[in-house]
Amino acid sequence: MAAAAAAAAVGGSQSPQAELPAPGLALDKAATAAHLKAALSRPDNRAGAEELQALLERVLSAERPLAAAADGEEAAAAGGGGGAGAAEEEALEWCKCLLAGGGGYDEFCAAVRAYDPAALCGLVWTANFVAYRCRTCGISPCMSLCAECFHQGDHTGHDFNMFRSQAGGACDCGDSNVMRESGFCKRHQIKSSSNIPCVPKDLLMMSEFVLPRFIFCLIQYLREGYNEPAADVPSEKDLNKVLQLLEPQISFLEDLTKMGGAMRSVLTQVLTNQQNYKDLTSGLGENACAKKSHEKYLIALKSSGLTYPEDKLVYGIQEPSAGTSTLAVQGFAGATGTLGQLDSSDEEDQDGSQGLGKRKRVKLSSNTKDQSIMDVLKHKSFLEELLFWTIKYEFPQKMVTFLLNMLPDQEYKVAFTKTFVQHYAFIMKTLKKSHESDTMSNRIVHISVQLFSNEELARQVTEECQLLDIMVTVLLYMMESCLIKSELQDEENSLHVVVNCGEALLKNNTYWPLVSDFINILSHQSVAKRFLEDHGLLVTWMNFVSFFQGMNLNKRELNEHVEFESQTYYAAFAAELEACAQPMWGLLSHCKVRETQEYTRNVVRYCLEALQDWFDAINFVDEPAPNQVTFHLPLHRYYAMFLSKAVKCQELDLDSVLPDQEMLMKLMIHPLQIQASLAEIHSNMWVRNGLQIKGQAMTYVQSHFCNSMIDPDIYLLQVCASRLDPDYFISSVFERFKVVDLLTMASQHQNTVLDAEHERSMLEGALTFLVILLSLRLHLGMSDDEILRAEMVAQLCMNDRTHSSLLDLIPENPNPKSGIIPGSYSFESVLSAVADFKAPVFEPGGSMQQGMYTPKAEVWDQEFDPVMVILRTVYRRDVQSAMDRYTAFLKQSGKFPGNPWPPYKKRTPLHPSYKGLMRLLHCKTLHIVLFTLLYKILMDHQNLSEHVLCMVLYLIELGLENSAEEESDEEASVCGPERCHDSWFPGSNLVSNMRHFINYVRVRVPETAPEVKRDSPASTSSDSLGSLQSSRRPKVLQRENSGTAQVFSLVAERRKKFQEIINRSSSEANQVVRPKTSNKWSAPGSAPQLTTAILEIKESILSLLIKLHHKLSGKQNSYYPPWLDDIEILIQPEIPKYSHGDGITAVERILLKAALQSRMNKRIIEEICRKVTPPVPPKKVTAAEKKTLDKEERRQKARERQQKLLAEFASRQKSFMETAMDVDSPENDIPMEITAAEPQISEAVYDCVICGQSGPSSEDRPTGLVVLLQASSVLGQCRDNIEPKKLPITEEEQIYPWDTCAAVHDVRLSLLQRYFKDSSCLLAVSIGWEGGVYVQTCGHTLHIDCHKSYMESLRNDQVLQGFSVDKGEFTCPLCRQFANSVLPCYPGSNVENNLWQRPSNKNIQDLIKEVEELQGRPGAFPVSISSETNLSKEMESVMKDIKNTTQKKYRDYSKTPGSPDNDFLFMYSVARTNLELELIHRGGNLCSGGASTAGKRSCLNQLFHVLALHMRLYSIDSEYNPWRKLTQLVEEVNSQLGNEEQQPEVPILYHDVTSLLLIQILMMPQPLRKDHFTCIVKVLFTLLYTQALVALSVKCSEEDRSAWKHTGALKKNTCDAEKSHEVLLSFVISELSKGKLYHEEGTQECAMVSPIAWSPESMEKYLQDFCLPFLRITSLLQHHLFGEDLPSCQEEEEFSVLSSCLGLLPTFYQTEHPFISASCLDWPVPAFDIISQWCFEINGFTERHAEQGKALLIQESRWKLPHLLQLPENYNTIFQYYHRKTCSVCTKVPKDPAVCLVCGTFVCLKGLCCKQQSYCECVLHSQNCGAGTGIFLLINASVIIIIRGHRFCLWGSVYLDAHGEEDRDLRRGKPLYICKERYKVLEQQWISHTFDHINKRWGPHYNGL
User: Whose C-alpha in 93, 171, 417, 1152 is 20 to 30 A from the C-alpha of 1770?
Assistant: First the structure.
């Protein structure tokens, strides 16, 4: 009916025969479909076609769903339940039926799939999918594979990694454009198209008719649902609603694409066929609804706002003229205010960005005049409109997936790529406005990376659709919206605009999809070539880059600290790297050969033009504005990098691409400004700008940025230096670093631009910069491998590094196609050449190390390069670290014992183009500076450090290494005085200038300076450094000509040079030099007047060096020219002795080199050494000087002192920790250790670690042990089979816990409780296998009242602790071990008094009576409980703590809740748990003997006192006391069996003997006597032995039994019958045969019976094994109670050793004949009587329950040690299984899956689906599985997390990669392998319960894990 109504509504011209009755239509879809298919198959199918159209028209009427959606729920309700949803389903059903043409839809799908030529995988995935990337197989860097294709292919030995997709992607398997065919998986190895059969015509015929209508219908819906929002931002809700309604339709299309190639080609036809589109969209007829939607579509198109320049461009591309680009751009800055206006001539800016209006606008090329083109995007096919709506709806995931799923179809791929490019501008516009720009960015890149990674396709759209023009223009358009005026240089008149880094566009990185596409297409050679050839594009691009030039300007705060630290610098650095540098690297990678010279010339040309424009725009002349710096000079860096490439790869002549001198001068200013600012920032001159400025300085040199930032800057400066006048350059450097005034001979000076405290570090900065500038060869001639090696050595010298951090720290060329891919061949080979691998080691403390690389010795010896280290350190401390490591190496290898100086390293030869750089070393200005500094250092002027001297010597040495060869000695001697009247030195060669003596220097000094005092008394002549004695002065001045007293001003020199150049380069530029700069250097008025003084110097550089040698060595005449003894030195000068050492070595090396370079120097050095130099008198320093000098020195000393103290403190602490935590030595001095050495001590003495007093523990002031109580289920994890449990990694493998110790004990207890009296059951077993309380101590004691005040202080302490004080947690005040309670020490001695130890000679009967009496006597304690003492209160409170440690379910096993039996059971089980655990810590047996080997100081003795005290509050009724049953024969047997209604007691043979032992002992008054203890053990052993015999008898077969019964009976009357196991066994068998125990045998039981024949030996072994666990626990108990050491023994003699130690073996026992366990028996009453009494009880029970009776008798006593699950070798096996495993509750794949390593349970970490009463699943599981301790492996992170109670910590990973590193969060995705040692450490910590002590970083989890 609905359909008929719809048909009426459509009211089209329908053919009459289509008017089927509606119900029939609905009933028989299949018949209709078949009928239509037949009709369409006829040759003349017009009628059929019309009929189908009419039907579709009705079924797919676009009106219904969205009308319903629009009118809201009422319509749905009115529609009678079904509403829109039902109609849609109906429509889909119809479509499926029609497609299948009457057959079943599933069969149809299968049929189509058969024709799939699956050469491509093309699987599309969304974000967070786990995929693989193999660099060995990839052609494109973006190549990725789905897990299935990856594992099916062969990638062994390849460089691959697993990664989590960020934006989504698609599998490239089978696509040879993107990856090499060798990497294809088995399914996609190229199939030839021939073997795929041709698709039968009629199979897809219906699809061709139905799909166009279906897609049109979908488009109608999309049009319909879109409402153009007011603010041009679609409201999320509406869009999502529409999309939800369309979910089924889009999914249907998606399923179609998955049917394979055949269906995809049909879809392609439909989507790209322009005729179909035209017919359907234009033939709307009178359909009102369709009209409405069409109108909406037109409105939406209009708002696609193609009134922007870039869209004109897109459409102005109809007929580009051949040669020119479509862009004739002069400077592109579209109106920021109103982007919509077309005509920019009359436009004034409306948003107040002044200055923009003046800039030139984009002139579009003439062919865009045609107004009509600019109206709307023209859509010609379904594909285009679908993409349009996809963009409008902000890229819904389903649509994206559908569009991408189609990509394997080649024809579609091309069409889609073109459509995408056509809409590119529109996409970016939508993105800019979007709220969800992150999600949208990811979806866009998801699509574009599939399209643009393919070189062929990228080339095609570049040529046909002007892709490059579009991209560059769109980028410009995007950035234009956030331009501001630049404040660099000339704030008022600047015309330059830069991006505002605070804008969302930059801050949120919204531009990255665009930039990443751009970088992607530039990686294709053909595309990059087009870009580099297109001048118009290059101009536009340089314009774009100039927007970033000078962004994020920093102005130095001089007065106040800045209030708000802006963090915009992140955005700025990211923008320069991504938007400028990466495209640059992309372009550079295509300029590698000579043929590409032209490209470089183009780039350089336009780059220089842009720079010139920039200098003009900011009004730059010659001086940078003071106190401002920008780190962003992308134009400079483009220029630098292209120059470098030109020289390195293209053999271009450097001078042909360099500008004139004036431009070079300008070019060097800003990079130099950055270098100076770096020094200022490190000198704390920018401290008022906050931390962010340090952040910028660090980012600038950081490994990901350095090769796009500091390296090009330094290279550019090197180029400038090599071409400019050296004197000019050097003086510029010192002026920029503001240390010109410091470079004077005078002892005092004034610096007008720098505070005194910053002078030293700025001078160091300037010299360091010069050293880097002159010795760095990164772009000046090093090959790529040499660079890689140098970088690697520098990083390794700072610190040992892991492989991944090295990869990260070494700046690789950021363009992925550059060839130096991380992990590539050269990286590994260089690494193995320079470094040794240190495998990860484990310290007992548990701190885990990673595998590290450390430099080889020869690297330290020959390649350590301090210059490279300084250049690459982000933190200054790394330089120090490198020097310390170097020092350590020299000491260790014995090369140099003292404190070495940084070594001088020989450099790679310079490329010839840069030879000019070395002129810097041979210019007078530098020589004057060096001379002055040497002089000042020698004279101890202030502010000079060893670092300065080091750098000065380094520069001198560089000069000697790089001196011009042709210097002849004669020429130098000729030079007369008249030649050098203008300057200090005769020539410019350092070699000859070194020996030039300088006599007098005229200096400007403050009037207060010592030099000014004319007639100084004789005594001060030495202070006022060589101030001339008045008598000599006149003579001197007459004798020399007036020019001799040289005065030199760097600044003046620089000015002069600059003026010359300017004049030379342009006559009209004279007025350029601004006068205002000169006043900067005049002293402020407050300063004292400067006056001129003349100093007598009479030194040359050589003489200064020799004196320095004396000064450094502290000896007179310490320098002796080595060649006088050994002339050989001059012939082969490379002497290893000089390569490492301190300043003295450096001076010697320099003098040797100077002598080598010229004979004159050699002679002069010898001469100087001959003159015996007078001793330098000690300086008297004036008070004022002393102050400034001392201040610095004192600071330095204080710093050193502090370091020393800290180091000393640390070593003390370490040695304390070592002794305190000593693992194997039981320490005698800690009173806790129980020693029997000095029995005369009456009372134990304890030290309180809080108040420090020592004394006994008393009732009023008890002392306690610091203990940690924790619930533990480790015991419960023991298993009885040796086969280790593996972690399940397939669905089949599951772990069932029924063979664990805990499960077995549980079953036993519930069985007993079913048949026996409850209170009796609770005495027959122990609990605590799960959730037992384990008590451990660090061995330190404290007064309990001290502890309370300590806890109070912790409570008030606001510091965040890793523990919860409210829960009673604290750390031991002495050793900081974690604890949560205090166990009171019982008064009295620990060493029990002698009288208890002495063996008494009473016989066993008397002892038994005594034991019984003592047990019956209540509270026979020295302390009467009635009087509440402090001690008893504390005992009670600790008992409460113990109970609260574990959960209720682990304490209450009684059927009647709250029964006292529960407490009784719980208390003796605590003792049991602690003994059993200690046994496990000892490895499960006591063979090793000795004191407690677990290294834990035991607190069992104290624990026993506390437990015993509480146990004795419950007295057992004497007739129920098992002691009676063990030691007496009971007469009235029948009375018990009489009362049927009351459940019987547990037969004694079903009792657990160890539990009985603990009950008996804890019921005795403490302290216990040794003979009572032995008596109890003897009695219990008889029971145990009988149990063993019974179990043996049940185990063996019927024949065995009768045989034994017979043989034993024969010996029954021998004298030793009670001690013969044969006799006893036969007696047991005969007794038990009276009951039904053996009868039940027969068929099903035979399985249990062991098939082995029992020999006497195997029987003996069985009996011993059965009894051993009891003996072990008993021996441990005896060791703790009486302090006797345990003997050590071999495993096979453990039984006999323990039994004799326990006193079970008679002393006269001979050891010759084989040992028989039965000889330990000592029956208290006749054996046969008591056995028959015990067996009688059992027979009574088996009368009714033979099965259970038997099960209870066989106790498994041989538990293996507990282990964690065994993990697979390779992590991938775990990951692949678990990361896709679904949660059992919600059947979704959890976000953070985890697996328990104890039991293998799969859990959701933090998963809300599994939350129960506010507890998340991991926390719950940790309580259920480990009683509060959980060990989980986080699948997605490969990390192990430990939950302990309410805290958790990350433990680390047990899986390491091939380089011994963890890969937390699987970020690197390299294959990981199990590290067995780490896993052992983890297991050890679990078993020994030491997680709390060893792991330091704990935090609360608030039940949220």
Answer: 171
